[in-house]
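Q: I'm writing up a methods section and want to include an example of the input and output format. Could you take the sequence below and give the corresponding predicted structure tokens, formatted cleanly so I can copy it straight into the document?
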Amino acid sequence: MKGTRDVVVVGASAGGVEALRTLVGTLPSDLPAAVLVVLHLPAQSESALPAILNRCGPLPVQAAEQGQVIERGHVYVARPDLHLAVADDHLILTKGPRENGHRPAVDVLFRTAARALGPRVIGVVLSGALDDGTAGMLAVAARGGVTVAQDPDDALYPAMPNSVIEHVEPDHILPARDIAAVLDERCREAVDLAPAPAMPAELPARMRMETRMSQLDRDTVTSEESPGVPSSLTCPDCSGALFEMDTEEMVRFRCRVGHAWSAESLAVEQGLAFEGALWMAMRSLEERAALGKQMAQTARERGNPMSAERFEQLGKDAARGARLIHELMERIDVRNLGGALAGQSQTAEG
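A: Here is the clean output for your methods example:
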């Protein structure tokens, strides 16, 4: 059966507002497709993105609504703290588990759109940090969709498009200002809507499982079937065991309740957790040092020199430990520790 590509899914993160304004501002008024957008957003804030993009170009832009029918010529934007997903020709909003630490996550939108609509989908990854969107773009490619990455030299933050280029080999690599013209052209092509014949046999089952997890399907969460091969790692979100996903394209992990991580995102999160642990340890030691000093003074006032000496030594030891941690934090960039760990992980996998 022949048809056209009529759903464009777009993912962005840091620096993405500028790229989205450029993209939406250059879309034609008669674009024969709907555009679905995920931008990483703080969970507690209201999003001004629909209003911002609505002023940029000719297509109407609105925040996505639960169960909304996808209409061509419209732009739909994910809401804060809700995944945006696709089921048939409808939008689904869900409080499913975070992926790569994000909700909404680009991977959820791309994966569910690819599973539901196959070759009708065009995926676009714009400026952003780390690699959310890469796994989803792999699903778009596997299901016969078109893949587009912003030129890293044109992106304020090139990590997300660079990751797509490395793992997916996208059909188009373009500056943001040139993407709209290509979308318009590819949306008007006649395509075979049958599923891609080269799709790996295990992919449909994995996509179905991941889709159900993102939609809080209880049967999937409580199923005895594991998401992958057990690893020695724990999930930063829930402290549950992580399973390595059965995929050759990139290293990914999931826990039983559905939190998903790429190797790079997981390593960066571990680096942040390490930093938090260091701050907590330093604070505890500083408090212990202050307590030792206070107790030593109290013991002297009460005429207990031996107790005063013991408390004074306790305070000095704690203060020394706090100084050592402070020096350690000055010498290493704990925020880049995750990137180093990710590189070591990929080297080990190789």
